[in-house]
Design a protein that fits this description.
By secondary structure, the chain is of the alpha+beta class. It has 18 helices and 13 strands. The chain has a 6-stranded mixed beta sheet. The chain has a 3-stranded antiparallel beta sheet with strand order 5-13-12. It has a two-stranded antiparallel sheet with strand order 6-7. A hairpin with a 2-residue loop joins strand 6 and strand 7. Bound molecules: protoporphyrin IX containing FE. The site of protoporphyrin IX containing FE has 24 residues, from helix 13, helix 14, strand 8 and helix 18.
Amino acid sequence: MTDVVTPSPFFLATEPYERHRLYAELSASGSVHRVVLPHGETVWFVTDYELSRAVLTDPRLMKVEPPFADQLAPGLRAAINSNMLYADPPAHTRLRKLVSAAFTRRRVEGLAPRVQSLTDELLDPLARRAETGFDLLAEFTYPLTMGVICELLGVPLSGREHFRDWTEAVTNLTVLGPDSYEKANAELVDYMRGLISAKRAQPADDLVSGLVAARDGGDQLTEDEMTSTMHVLLIAGHETTANLIGNSVRGFLTRPGMWPMLRADPTQVPAAIEEVLRYDPPLQTIPRRRASQDLELGGVTIPVGGMVVVGMMAANHNIDETPNPHDLDLSNPQSAHLAFGHGIHFCVGAPLSRLEGRIALTSLLERFPDLRLSVPAAEVRTAPGLLMNVMETLPVTTRPA
Ligand code: HEM
């Protein structure tokens, strides 16, 4: 077991692919490590793939709310944390079932034409910016994935201007601190409560109206469960998918021949996306679990109350069947990965993200055969954080070299 005593460097890494190297070094020294999170908390950090799967299905490791939850006003805390992501069975089973009743396959598949037209609306003006170039994250991946989740939920255009800032404050809590987290959540909850009452008065064919109407026998979501579910869908469903598209584009553009090869055969895009999900996943870690009793993990004793974090990005590079685990290699055979989690909390939005990723990437390949980075690859910085694995910006140009 490695004992890391200062805030661990992988979360603060900013050099391109530096995090990948640091995680590889950590994994080489064992499977379970003592690691300090950006806000100072020390946890047991698992980097072995099989052990990570075991953690995610072990009923003795319980879900916990995000850090600083006990500093929030009780009303706000209930309005954001009463959803499936922070619940164990039987509450988890009940919440996930009620949400699944509204978050149907039909609703997701029905979004494909809208994802395509949102993609086209964003790419049309960018096609005219060959001379200046643009930041693909700010001008394409974030607006696209935000647009899709807002359409799905039924958030009108006029309400969307603060969503990116609110999401950033919530997902990067451990780096930005509890004050901006509380403020963003208070504003977001206010907004969502207003939206729920509007949909109650005038239901539409969207997910918020679906959540208001969702029933399982006599059971239905409470007001807090509804705002909290909208909260998790909005936050989990937006930046993650934006990262998937951004990390894919950076990966494909910085490996010789990959962009033209995918352009020549776009049927390979879904498999290429799976390889990005393995090698450069949108999240680097899976939220903490708490030991409900003393237990042993890979030869290490975790005492009751101990916090365990799955170092998913590291674990994805430690899958036995991957011949070339430490690079994005489209000839690696498709293997399972942990990018969407594992077990009962497996990501509800995985089919939607894969759909968005496929449409966004095939459209970029088709429209922009000459797409390339407009700065040296060494200048594409990684953003510090515990949860997200994201770049600061991704400057590109569509102008031929
Ligand atoms: C590439 C994009 C995405 C990635 C990498 C991702 C990743 C994950 C992971 C790792 C988990 C498991 C968390 C845990 O075990 O604690 C999870 C759960 C979840 N995700 Fe996603 N997600 C993505 C997109 C989405 C989208 C688009 C939505 C919704 C529209 C969504 C909604 C959820 C929800 C509600 C859960 C909680 C499930 C439960 O607790 O039962 N995610 N996601």
